[in-house]
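[agent] plan:
  1. take the single chain provided in the ticket
  2. run structure prediction with default settings
  3. attach structure tokens to the ticket
  4. add a short note for the reviewer (M.T.)
[agent] executing step 1
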Amino acid sequence: MLERNIAIVGDGATDRAIFKKISECILSDGDENNVTLNYIELSRQNIHDAVERYCKEVNKINSGCYLTGEQASQFRKSVTNTLYTAFTEFEKEIGGSFSLSPHFREFIG
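[agent] step 2 finished; step 3 output follows
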């Protein structure tokens, strides 16, 4: 039987339930039940604060470009760091080690 370890990241019970159901729909083997899904609920993570900070900052700007400025750079870095934190926690939980692409590593500094 195939086994999949799935890390669930969210900042509340609703997030976790939604992500669990989505992964069941995508990864389950229909009625065959040939796949075991092992869910690992990681510590609370959210990007809400980063989104709020970004929206607040870009609302102060009169120019129409929000994707290339310092605000966008800080937003990308904040979200990437959140995801990286979850990723490293997942590695510790399953006792594995994965390699990250150089592109991803450039964002986390």
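[agent] step 4 note for reviewer: The first strand starts at residue 2 and ends at 8.
[agent] ticket updated
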